[in-house]
User: Which sequence fits this backbone?
């Protein structure tokens, strides 16, 4: 595949995971924390893993019961 051996292919796959993983994590964290998902994904473009750390330490928003 494009002249890549197994070690290079594994390196490319790991690199792609490192690039896309913050977007997946931050979308889920922003949704659980009650933040704007679109804004957090935009900030992820700029600040990468820093946004993930900030969202991870924010408290979760508790859902109000319907009674």
Assistant:
């Amino acid at each position: 595949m494009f002249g890549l051996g197994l070690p290079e292919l594994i390196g490319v796959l790991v690199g792609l995971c490192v690039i896309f993983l913050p977007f997946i994590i931050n979308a889920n964290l922003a949704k659980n924390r009650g933040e704007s998902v679109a804004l957090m994904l935009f900030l992820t473009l700029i600040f990468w893993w820093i946004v993930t750390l900030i969202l991870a330490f924010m408290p979760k928003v508790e859902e109000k019961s319907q009674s």
The chain is about 70% helix and 0% strand. The mean pLDDT is 85. The chain has one domain: 6-57.
